[in-house]
Amino acid sequence: MPPRRKTRQVNVGGVPIGGDAPVALQTMTAGYTYEIDKCIAEIQKLARAGADLVRVAVPDKVDTEALKHIIPASPVPIVADVHFHFQRALEAIEAGVHKIRLNPGNIQDRAQVNRVIAACKERGIPIRVGVNEGGIVERKDKDQRAAEKATLARDYRANLIKLMLDKLDEYLRIFDENNFHDVVISAKSIDPLLVIDVYTAISAKYDYPLHLGVTHAGPPETGRIRSISALGTLLANGIGDTIRISYAADPVHEVEDGKELLCCLGLRRRTEPELIACPTCGRIEVDLFKLVTDVRHKLATEIDIPVKVAVMGCVVNGPGECEGADVAIFAGKGKGIIYVQGEQRRTVPENQMLDALLGECREFAERVKRGEAQLKGGDVEIKPPDPLPRKHGGVALPVVGK
Predict the structure, then answer these.
(1) Please, what is the average pLDDT of the chain?
(2) What is the pLDDT of residue 399?
């Protein structure tokens, strides 16, 4: 994977963004900010799931008033989402917010924008500037809007990218004139290909840290494909300093999927168990779906270190697919063989596989905590077990493909 693009670094309430800092994961609350107790509970839930930053909406003064109570109770830095009303930004800054999300184009009075920048500069608070597809086209000036729409109609993607870059230039000039450089840039779209192209263009032009995201990503079932295709491509090419995956659902799913993406790309250390399972095929002779579901639930609730666990339905591809697993099971007709870091431990009947596997996981995790064992991280060699007997029409058959 290419090295990460070097950017400036900003500090968001103690969380560094950009430079050589890890890619930060953020999300946004779904409830009303002015419902203080509910908002705090949601922030705490998102932080437990793995969010590094949480953004909250502050459309009204009652919301910025609530920040005075929310911020001290939050385990992670809080970002205030501000649109149109510069006064909300000033109130959020006064309440102690750690970052402002602001689009200068949504505030017509330049003096008001300057006041927000000055307040952030005084407090050392970064500002995220967004040039998102949904809000980039002029809406108040009819003539300008008509001209922009006509231009976009000729080659929508190319001209939209140019428009986003032009708007970004315009916004950044304001910050340059105020000698303010604690800026994070975002350029989101519903189109993952456009997201890839525009962030690639921005990364070649500016050294500001980039906040990656795909807007209107939909429910998790489809939205995760839309989001991961864009964000995974950019991150794999060294672009991106903080991310948000957006769903029309409980934002805890955004955090879970974002964390998994970063772990898969080696951009975040795992702190929880990792479960590997083989794809299903005609060789499987146990209820693998139920076994995997039960193992996943048990690992999430009972194991608190990043043990790598593999659940395999046969012994054909399993040894290679789970190479490096700390604990593995290969299931066959009526039984399963359990390995711990490459060492064959025991064979158990099917009705005992779950309890036996979890028992080995618990024992291994405790040994790691006591310093008697180490997580191997991919260098465990697992030798293929002898083929488990397979019955067909009352006759034991060898496993095909051995």
Answers:
(1) 88
(2) 41
Q: What distance in Å separates the CA atoms of residue 309 and residue 336, rounded to the nearest whole number?
A: 14
Tokens 């109770």 belong to residue: 73
The single-letter code of the amino acid at 329 is I
pLDDT, position 314:
75
Place of tokens 């001290």: 72
- What is the Cα–Cα distance from 45 to 368, expressed in whole angstroms? 28
Per-residue model confidence as pLDDT tens digits over 89-107: 999 999 999 999 987 777 7
**What is the DSSP annotation of 310-377?**
EEESSSSSHHHHTTT-SEEEEEETTEEEEEETTEEEEEEEGGGHHHHHHHHHHHHHHHHHTTS----S
Q: Are 371 and 331 in contact (CB under 8 A)?
A: no
Mean pLDDT of 264-269: 93
Per-residue three-class SS string for 200-255: HHHHHHCCCCEEECCCCCCCHHHHHHHHHHHHHHHHHCCCCCEECCCCCCCCHHHH
Each residue of 170-217: pLDDT tens digit? 899 999 999 999 999 999 889 999 999 999 999 999 999 999 999 877
**How far is CA 67 from each of CA 11, 43, 51, 244, rounded to the nearest angstrom?**
19, 12, 19, 22
Q: How far is CA 156 from the centre of its chain?
A: 29
d(CA 139, CA 135): 8
Cβ atoms within 10 Å, residue 72: 10
Q: Label the pairing between strands 335-340 and 343-349.
A: antiparallel
All structural domains of the chain, each given as residue ranges with its CATH number in brackets, are 9-264 (3.20.20.20), 274-397 (3.30.413.10)
Of all residues in the chain, the percent with pLDDT exceeding 70 is 90
Residue 74: band (very low, low, confident or very high) from pLDDT cuts 50, 70, 90: very high
Tally DSSP H helices, then E strands, for the chain: 13, 17
* CA 36 from centroid of its chain's CA atoms: 26
Contact 390, 399 (CB under 8 A): yes
- Average pLDDT over every residue of 151-173: 84
